[in-house]
Amino acid sequence: RTATETDEARYQTVYAKQAGAVAAPTAGLHFDKSMLSILSEMGVAIAHVTLHVGLGTFQPVRVENIADHQMHKEIFHVPPETVESIRRAKAAGGRVLAVGTTSLRALEAAAAAGKGELQPGHRDTAIFITSRYRLRLVERLLTNFHLPRSTLLMLVSAFGGAENIRRAYQHAINERYRFFSYGDAMLIERES
After folding, report:
1. What sign results for the dihedral spanned by CA atoms 66, 70, 76, 78?
2. How far apart are CA 150 and CA 107, in angstroms?
3. What's this model's pTM, rounded to 2 decimal places?
4. In this model, does residue 59 exceed pLDDT 80?
């Protein structure tokens, strides 16, 4: 359908600060201010990153060999306070949960820039996370259900294991979960 004025407000996370993406990070749509407040009261450290989603994220993979797929560059920012928050959490035995594939891509790109050590800063990335990619930082992922033949589905399959993701999608189809931007979310543990 055609976008309406209410979509301008609804299709945005409650924590968005900067314009620049072509789409909202839809996993973040599952949170409201009240839920974020409750998580904070529970002791969950919340840190922010920015990845300006580009149209390339939504381009289907049209090549037979995924190594031939070219990702478009996207701009991201990992603030120093986010790096410090993650370092403190890891030192205390905590785990890093990314809300959405965009957050995961920003964090993993920042870790790759530092050769495994998370680095703050503004950069661009064409990171394409597939089963051959060695994940460095994120241990859990909250994300929506993604389109077939998309780089995002390949990312979640690489993260959680292809067979685990196939089972999760089959369950979602059988139980009539809602897919895509305004759909249901899933929590994925990184497969070792």
Report:
1. positive
2. 20
3. 0.87
4. no
